[in-house]
Amino acid sequence: MHVVSESYRGLSVVFEVSLDRIVVPVATVVALVGAGMLGLHLIEMFGMDPHLIDRL
């Protein structure tokens, strides 16, 4: 029974580490997409022409 509980703990650590490797990049992409969408909404709200932004 001791071997089963130790292997279960080891498996849960591996699962948590692999879950972290998936969650961090996904959260980064979601944050970047959200920031882009917010930027587009601000441009629309203030009536700026998106083609003139490169002149700033």
General shape: rod-shaped
Largest sheet entry: none
Distance between the termini: 68 Å
Structural class: mainly alpha
Q: Helix share of residues?
A: over 70%
| Rg of Cα set | 22 Å
Low-confidence stretches: none
On the 0 to 100 scale, the average pLDDT is 79
**Strand fraction band?**
under 5%
Number of helices: 1
Order of helices and strands: H
Instruction: Say how many strands there are.
Output: 0
Set down the secondary structure blueprint.
Blueprint: H1 2-46
Please, could you describe this protein's structure?
The chain is mainly alpha-helical and 56 residues long. 80% of the residues lie in helices and 0% in strands. It contains one helix and no strands. The longest helix has 45 residues. The termini are far apart. The mean pLDDT is 79.
Provide a concise account of the structure shown:
The chain is mostly helical.
Characteristic terms for this protein:
0% strand; mainly alpha; 56 residues; rod-shaped
